[in-house]
Amino acid sequence: MLKTWCSSDWTSEERYNPLSVSELAFGSPYLSSAIKTGIITGIIGLAGLFRRTAVNFNAGCKTAVSNIVMATAVMITLLFLTPLFHYTPLVVLSSLIIAAMLGIIDYEAAIHLWNIDKFDFVVCMGAYIGVVFFSVEVGLVVAVTLSLLRGTFPTPWLTEALINIPIANNVPGVLILQIDAPIYFANSNYLRERIQRWIYEEEEKLKSSGQTSLQYIILDLSAVGSIDTSGISMLEEVKKNSDSKGLKLVLANPRSEVIKKLDKSKFIENIGQEWIYLTVAEAVAACNFMLHTCKPNPAAIELQGRENMV
After folding, report:
1. CA-CA to 27 of 20 to 30 Å: which in 9, 156, 225, 242?
2. What is the pLDDT of residues 17-37, one digit of tens each?
3. Is the distance from CB of 190 to CB of 231 less than 8 angstroms?
4. Confidence band (pLDDT; 50, 70, 90) for 159?
């Protein structure tokens, strides 16, 4: 019944009248018995036959001769045309890799490197070309080699600035830090962690002594001759962490090259031009003026209140 219904559904549009099982039984009783027995016992897979019929019907086939044509085409392909498909797996795999890479390439980051530091852009492209056309190891070696060509990096160290300015050592709520080395990818993480440690120690010292809470952090950049994108990212993280604690980051005496890169990266716009000073003395005087004339930072008050509740 199922076979008759499926065949009639596909042949009604072509106005065919296929033979049913009963008609087959009239012509060949042994064939009819074999078909019935096969259907009942599951030897004949009707689903496969229906699927093949549906494919042929959608392809425009009219008679069973289409199966002969299909078998002939498959045989010719396997015997003579197989060498033409020898490189097909490699081509398909390459296209999948290229399609996946297009989604992970950060064009905006490359443009950002080009605008800030051309050498960092060269290192980025060298690593990219090495990985794409050779291997990950080659790309890593190229990036490290180009970075070493920049020159020897001085040993970075961060100290609390003890400047010969009386007001600088007597202003509670102001922390002055001096970076005595260029800021590169090799020392940016160390500087970030060290700055955060100084801030924590200063906050604990002021809290234990009962003085005014820390509100301003002055970074003396007079000894910073150059900075790369990793250094700028470090300053952005310090700025973000300071804002979360209700602290204000202030820059003092940055050099022209550093100012240019900070301006191109829009860090100056983020921190505000009014918080960049030519000397440490001017920065300290401005912070001291703000401490005595302006209201405390609401974020700092809220954060301090939460700490007291805890």
Report:
1. 9
2. 555 544 444 445 555 555 555
3. no
4. very low
By C-alpha distance, which of 162, 159, 200 is closest to 284? 162
Which residues, listed in sequence order, are joined to residue 288 by a DSSP beta bridge?
none
Contacts of 38-41 with C-beta under 8 Å, sequence gap 24+, read 39/3
β partners of residue 158: 179
Write the pLDDT tens digit of every residue in 198-243: 888 888 887 887 777 888 888 888 888 888 888 888 888 989 988 8
Considering the entire predicted model, what is its pTM? 0.54
Q: Residues 6, 50: contact at Cβ < 8 Å?
A: yes
Structure tokens at 65: 């001769």
Cα(127)–Cα(147) distance, rounded to whole angstroms? 11
Q: What's residue 253's pLDDT?
A: 86
Task: Provide the number of structural domains found in the chain.
Answer: 3
At 49, which helix (H) or strand (E)? helix 46-58
The CA distance from 226 to 86, in Å, is 54
50 and 143 fall within a common domain = no
Distance CA 155, CA 240 (A): 26
The reply to whether 81 falls in a domain is: no
**Helix residue ranges per DSSP H, 106-255:** 107-116, 118-133, 136-149, 188-209, 229-244
Report the pLDDT averaged over residues 39-52. 54
Residue 278 CA to residue 290 CA, distance in Å, equals 18
> Is 69 inside any structural domain?
no
* Cα separation, 80 vs 264, whole angstroms: 62
User: Do 167 and 251 belong to one domain?
Assistant: yes
CA distance 276 to 271: 8
Output DSSP code: residue 77. Answer: I
**Structural domain of 126:** 88-149
Closest CA to 196 of 152, 241, 229: 241
Are 53 and 102 found together in one domain? Answer: no
